[in-house]
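Lab meeting, item 3. Inverse folding demo.
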């Protein structure tokens, strides 16, 4: 705690538990009213931030890179210490607080949606990692089992590996038996049982033993449980975003879908004051480039400091939209014609969509191609 001149008024530590957070609120209230007393913190989310906001305090997040850059102003040694960083945070807020934007509490519906979306994204990341591990294991002794179906992490491929985890287990597998397995698991019928068996048998086989077979079965069962939980979370997310007015706005964009729209809205939130302009939204989403200029040298580079989850969701929507919107396809095509690779062209398209998204979100109206000047030029 410091005053307007930077003099330390109080210094204390609390535990990260219920009693500690209650003691923190009581100690802070001794120095000023919650609505007046500003609080600086590095992390913009979490239990501590929620507790401070619910108590009515003005919480301002300060990026850790700012704190790191300011350490030489206060001491010659650049070593990090929590008590020292606490004072630096308070002093930055004292001197530069007018340049920083305090946090605004999101609605409970957005908090719930964000928790569901981020939890699902983490499970999807775990699924991808386990699928890679399973692929590497199969490639080491039975590559054919990894290639019999197009997606190894699909329910039918995992069911196949659970029943036939080794070449020995599938030694007596013939077209009729495989056809019965495919019918039991509702195979789409893209390839015949004979063609699938050819895929399975054409790859070389190695000595497996029971150990690798048990590992294959364990990974397959773990992935099956993950897929089931991801499907449950996806269903909850679809119901949650459909019930939100802002959710219907984001879903109105071409090929936004439900999961991708939920990912965008979870990071976008429902506090309009957070993004006063389309440029701030584009910068937060990481789709606006950064210009480096010093003297006669000038360059444009990739934006690292951004909300990575928002960038992934917005670029995913942009990539999908070019297959439905002629305007989006034209923006993407012109970027590729200028020599941009696919990821760069998608970011350019996402930057264009960020303008439209910000306008629709700010005005609280769904996307209407008839009101979009760029899309009107491609209307039939």
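The presenter then showed the designed sequence:
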């Amino acid at each position: 705690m410091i005053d307007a001149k930077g003099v330390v008024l109080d210094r204390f530590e609390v535990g990260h538990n219920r009693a500690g957070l209650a003691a923190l609120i009581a100690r802070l209230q001794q120095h000023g009213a919650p609505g007046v007393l500003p609080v600086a913190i590095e992390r913009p989310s979490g239990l501590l931030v929620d507790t401070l906001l619910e108590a009515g305090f003005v919480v301002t997040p300060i990026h850790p890179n700012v704190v790191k850059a300011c350490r030489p102003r206060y001491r010659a040694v650049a070593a990090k210490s929590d008590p020292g960083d606490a004072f630096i945070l308070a002093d930055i807020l004292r001197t530069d607080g007018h340049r920083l934007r305090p946090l605004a509490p999101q609605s409970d519906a957005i908090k719930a949606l964000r928790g569901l979306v981020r939890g699902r994204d983490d499970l999807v990341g775990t699924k991808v990692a386990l699928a890679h591990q399973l692929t590497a294991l199969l490639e080491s002794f039975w590559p054919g089992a990894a290639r019999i179906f197009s997606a190894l992490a699909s329910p039918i491929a995992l069911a196949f590996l659970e029943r036939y985890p080794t070449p020995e287990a599938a030694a007596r597998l013939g077209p009729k038996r495989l056809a019965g397995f495919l019918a039991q698991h509702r195979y789409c019928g893209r390839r015949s049982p004979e063609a699938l068996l050819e895929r399975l048998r054409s790859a070389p086989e190695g000595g497996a033993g029971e150990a690798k077979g048990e590992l294959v079965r364990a990974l397959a069962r773990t992935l099956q449980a993950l897929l089931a939980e991801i499907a449950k979370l996806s269903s909850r997310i679809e119901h949650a975003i459909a019930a939100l007015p802002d959710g219907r706005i984001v879903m109105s964009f071409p090929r936004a879908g439900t999961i991708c729209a939920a990912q965008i809205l979870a990071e976008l939130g429902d506090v309009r004051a957070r993004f006063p302009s389309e440029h701030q939204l584009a910068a937060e989403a990481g789709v606006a480039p950064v210009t480096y200029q010093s003297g006669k040298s000038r360059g444009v580079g990739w934006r690292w400091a951004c909300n990575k989850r928002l960038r992934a969701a917005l670029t995913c929507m942009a990539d999908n939209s070019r297959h439905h919107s002629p305007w989006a396809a034209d923006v993407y095509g012109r970027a590729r014609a200028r020599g941009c690779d696919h990821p760069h062209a998608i970011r350019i398209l996402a930057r264009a969509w960020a303008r439209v998204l910000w306008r629709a979100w700010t005005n609280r109206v769904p996307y209407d191609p008839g009101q979009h000047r760029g899309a009107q030029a491609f209307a039939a």
